């Protein structure tokens, strides 16, 4: 049942990513049309806009959530592709473990960075 | 039986990419894999690069290393991969949970399979992905 | 018979040959065959064996698309040789090869043992708690036509292996169960006489089970009997998820009717007329 569990969460993560990454794309790449979340004007990727999003609690929370679901979805996908290359069972176990550690590590890095800049930007704004 | 030498006739990775005359769903599957791998490799780098802002390093703003046309184009490719992967993914979530494939029927030649049932959904998803692609292209081309 | 159907065309058969005792790898040998309208690829292979090259080996039996022996790769597509008219798929050249994703024993003969092992491992038979009733039945199982329709399509499988040859996952993953075993599992899961779904779930929900299918759909496209294994596998995935989330409907396997006249009639069926003899 373990694989069924992983796969079910993979599907659920996909749906969540659709919403969150869709929002991210609208913010970053379709801003010229929708003018969303770029209150500092101009490019969404400008320093001013980046700092704005850093200071926003909404963006910090959704970024951390997006990071978690996207890492799970992406690394499970990679695991699926690699598992289909006829690996030894021991290799499969090791691969799952390595991907889990890599995922947790990257999540730790990204989440810490998001919280750290939010604290700094919040302090600077307040 | 076991002492007869056999010849391994597996297609290998060529079986993922080529090997015969296929239906459109198989190409959709290949593209879904390629776009997923592309997005993942971008994503892993993206986490590291954006986390650097915690040390005050903003590589993507005006004057930064990544603010060059070649990287902008790369980003557009990632965006395109996302547009395709997302809409094909919606189709796959529906199909792989048993919706949009139809119920078991009495097979009468010429056979109509679940592929025929989900084909309209595939076309709809590709149209929506195309629309999103154009919207993003408009933005990326700086219009 | 019209003149057109009596016309003979010369078609080149490019046949994959491999003798494990002599060759190191398969090679292609070309034979030119006179083809008349209505000739199947199987007829063409017989012509080669009778007139051109008696050493050619392949499997066949019923010659009418029901035994599943003659599955092979015709112009890049896995299908039955007996079911395929030469002139429908070739105008001048026809490539004939053994089914891919299986080891080759010789020439056009694939080693299907792996497919049958996977099939067996998924317990393709009715499993019930009252085992004695299966072996020594005291009556018939009750199953309505609607309940039959829920799995009948998947029961038409002739185990030819064409779906396994077409599957992209099987191209690289030797341990993937494959479309035929998985749709056989679904055929029994949906059979109301059966109660073995949770047993089969252990294997079909494993790392190389149903979730390694990604709906490329080639299995359903090539199936010569319209079994639609892709549909069966997607329904199987849905059932696996429902079982994992404990949302599956609890259903008992269907009842046995003990002997004639002892079953309970359905509510709106009128009583039988009195006996006259």
Structural commentary:
The complex is a heterotrimer of chains A (126), B (143) and C (277). The N and C termini of chain A lie far apart (50 Å). Chain A is elongated and about 55 Å long. In chain A, α1 (2-29) crosses α4 (57-83) and α4 packs antiparallel against α5 (89-125). Chain A has 126 residues and is mainly alpha-helical. Chain A has helices at 2-29, 31-34, 47-55, 57-83, 89-125. The mean pLDDT of chain A is 87. Chain B is an all-alpha fold and 143 residues long. Chain B has a single domain, classed as Fumarate reductase/succinate dehydrogenase, transmembrane subunit (3 helical TM bundles of succinate and fumarate reductases, Up-down Bundle), CATH 1.20.1300. Chain B has helices at residues 14-17, 24-51, 69-96, 114-140. The longest helix of chain B has 28 residues, at 24-51. Chain C starts with a helix and ends in a 20-residue tail after the last strand. Chain C is 34% helix and 15% strand. The radius of gyration of chain C is 23 Å and the shape is globular. Chain C has helices at residues 3-6, 41-52, 86-89, 113-121, 131-135, 145-155, 162-166, 168-172, 179-189, 197-204, 218-222, 229-244; strands at 8-17, 27-36, 71-74, 77-80, 93-97, 104-106, 109-110, 140-141, 256-257. In chain C, β3 (71-74) and β4 form a beta hairpin. In chain C, α4 packs parallel to α9. Chain C has two domains: 9-110, Ubiquitin-like (UB roll) (Roll); 113-257, Fumarate Reductase Iron-sulfur Protein, Chain B, domain 2 (Orthogonal Bundle). Chain C has 277 residues and is α+β, with helices and mostly antiparallel strands. Chain C has twelve helices and nine strands. The chains are: A mainly alpha (126), B mainly alpha (143), C alpha+beta (277). Chains in contact: A-B, A-C, B-C. Chains B and C meet through α1, α2 and α3 of B and α6, α8, α11 and α12 of C.
């Amino acid at each position: 049942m373990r694989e069924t569990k992983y796969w079910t969460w993979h599907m659920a993560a996909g749906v969540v990513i659709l919403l969150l990454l869709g929002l991210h794309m609208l913010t970053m790449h379709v801003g010229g049309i929708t003018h969303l979340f770029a209150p500092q004007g101009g490019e969404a990727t400008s320093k001013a806009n980046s700092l704005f999003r850093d200071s926003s609690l909404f963006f910090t929370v959704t970024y951390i959530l997006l990071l978690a679901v996207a890492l799970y979805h992406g690394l499970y996908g990679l695991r699926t592709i690699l598992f289909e290359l006829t690996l030894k069972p021991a290799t499969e176990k090791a691969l799952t473990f390595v991907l889990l550690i890599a995922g947790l590590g990257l999540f730790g890095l990204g989440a810490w960075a998001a919280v750290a800049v939010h604290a700094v930007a919040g302090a600077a704004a307040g | 039986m076991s002492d007869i030498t056999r010849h391994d006739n597996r297609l290998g990775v060529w079986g993922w990419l080529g090997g015969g005359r296929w239906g459109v769903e198989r190409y959709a599957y290949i593209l879904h894999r390629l776009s997923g791998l592309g997005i993942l490799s971008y994503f892993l780098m993206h986490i590291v690069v954006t986390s650097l802002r915690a040390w005050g390093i903003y590589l993507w703003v005006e004057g930064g290393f990544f603010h060059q046309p070649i990287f902008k184009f790369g980003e557009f490719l990632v965006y395109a991969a996302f547009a395709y992967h997302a809409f094909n993914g919606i189709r796959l979530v529906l199909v792989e949970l048993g919706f949009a494939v139809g119920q078991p029927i009495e097979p009468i030649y010429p056979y109509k399979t679940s592929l025929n049932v989900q084909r309209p959904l595939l076309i709809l998803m590709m149209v929506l992905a195309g629309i999103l692609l154009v919207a993003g292209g408009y933005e990326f081309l700086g219009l | 018979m019209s003149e057109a159907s009596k016309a003979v065309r010369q078609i080149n058969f490019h046949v994959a040959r491999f003798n494990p005792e002599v060759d190191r790898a398969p090679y292609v040998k070309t034979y030119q065959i006179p083809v008349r309208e209505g000739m199947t690829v199987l007829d063409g292979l017989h012509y080669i064996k009778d007139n051109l090259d008696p050493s050619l080996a392949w499997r066949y039996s019923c010659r009418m698309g029901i035994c599943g022996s003659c599955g092979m790769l015709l112009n890049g597509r896995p299908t039955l040789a007996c079911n395929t008219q030469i002139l429908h798929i070739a105008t001048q050249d026809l490539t004939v090869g053994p089914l891919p994703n299986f080891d080759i024993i010789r020439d056009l003969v694939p080693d299907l043992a792996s497919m049958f092992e996977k099939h067996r491992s998924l317990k393709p038979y009715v499993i019930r708690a009252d085992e004695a009733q299966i072996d020594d039945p005291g009556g018939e199982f009750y199953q309505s036509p609607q309940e039959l329709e829920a799995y009948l399509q998947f029961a038409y499988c002739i185990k030819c292996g064409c779906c396994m040859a077409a599957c992209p996952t099987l191209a690289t993953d030797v341990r993937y169960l494959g479309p035929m075993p998985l749709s056989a599992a679904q055929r029994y899961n949906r059979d109301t006489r059966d109660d073995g779904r949770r047993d089969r779930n252990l294997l079909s929900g494993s790392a190389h089970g149903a979730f390694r299918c990604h709906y490329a759909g080639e299995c359903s496209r090539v199936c010569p009997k319209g079994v639609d294994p892709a549909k069966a596998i997607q329904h199987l995935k849905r059932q696996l998820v429902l079982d994992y989330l404990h949302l599956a409907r609890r259903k008992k396997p269907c009842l046995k009717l003990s002997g004639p006249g002892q079953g309970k009639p359905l509510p709106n069926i009128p009583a039988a007329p009195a006996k006259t003899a």
